[in-house]
Amino acid sequence: MTKYIIFILSVSFLGCNNIKKQETQPLLEYNKTIDSLMQISYKRGIFNGNVLVTRNDSIVYQNSFGYTDGSLTTELTKKSIFCPGSIAKEFVAVSIMMLIEKGELHLDDTLSQFDLDLPNWSEKVTIKHLLNYVGGLPQIDYDNVKNEKDILEDLQGVTSLLFEPGTDFNYNLNSIFLQQKIIEKVTKKTFQEFAKENIIIPLGMKDAVFDPDFDYPNRTRSFDIYKQNSLEVYMIKGILWTNIEDLNTWITALHHNKLISRESLKTLLKNQYFENKKAILGGTDDAYTMHRHGGESYQFGSVFISEFENDLNVILMSNHKNQVWEIGHSVFDIMKDKTFILPKKSIYREIRKKCLDNINEGIQYYYSLKESDHEIYSFENPNELNSLGYDLLSLKKVNQSIAIFKLAVSEFPNNANTYDSLGEAYFIDKQYDLALLNYKKSLELDPKNTNAEEMIKKIKNNIIK
């Protein structure tokens, strides 16, 4: 990959909670380098959105690139609000911890205590389980539920959990939905009302809004590579949309213990049951010096990378599912005076249409670009082909998705995730022998891959006799 090295004099800043623009020379140097990176990313078609970088009381860099929706008629501004995806779950989890710190809830409280008319399994699922996605709850049944009433009724009909609480991990939105219901039961208010009164108004998040309609002022629409706006149907209410400055306000307040204590924050920053699984606030390092979190929803993609010591926040919000993680890490590396990677154009986006029209021509196009434009497209990232495979799978193009996953396996033969994905596609296509073969290879490459382990058991015990 193309790499750049920058050398910038270090500078110290006095701590201050309010963000103010300061034009010191060292910050201008960071600003110029970040702007060069962002301009190239925009021109390469891998970023449409807003970016904000702050350190202590200074805005290091802020800019908007691209448009509010697929019509490409209205340009983004710093006031534009986005759906932050999973980052919005932070507001739910922190609300729970606020109530715990007040003594109104406890981590070991069980679901059965909150009058939700759930089956007997609710007697052993605790708030702590919900916060760590280890309660054994299934994912929301998107094919059959349409709203929150349906979600609760569906949960009330679940006869057994996927596993004993605390013994395995299953990322699901039912855990978030139930946390909101617990807040509602305890406070006698909706989650939205509680968060507005205790978080949004006190922090001065003036533009943050729950569940905005399409015509809400400054609301963006997410759009795909063909400039088609996404459907954007949200079954769970209480998703907080923010602009990038309000998100920065939230992050800073969280890290300065304005909402919950540092110990409570640590509880949410790491999964309390499984070291290698995600936490509800994203993740941190072993020394709790950082906080990083990303979220996706439809074509929205947001990420922030924060360092506590220097009050450093790098935030990107996109409505075009761009390479926010890769670009965000490069911006963070710039701020840390490190070598950084100049993100490449998405090979997934480039070959997608040809793969939809004719999978063989799409794969041939992939190889021809790899030979002629290797330095321009992101051939080194296995997630590019993996994302395309799942894109095709979501469109019920199973044979085409298998072809792409097979391409991914041949390109990245030591990557456990590509074999896991190919195994899933074969399983959906009822080619169980081939599914088993690929899940075994995935587990061989990554012995911690619990999904592959469970699928191997499922195929052996329930399908192949």
TrEMBL record:
Keywords on record: TPR repeat
SMART domains: TPR (SM00028)
Domain Beta-lactamase-related: 33-321
InterPro entries in the record: Beta-lactam-related, Beta-lactam/transpept-like, Diverse_Enzym_Activities, TPR-like_helical_dom_sf, TPR_rpt
Residue ranges of TPR repeats: 416-449
Keyword Cell membrane annotated: no
Name of the protein in question: CubicO group peptidase, beta-lactamase class C family
Any Pfam family the entry gives: Beta-lactamase
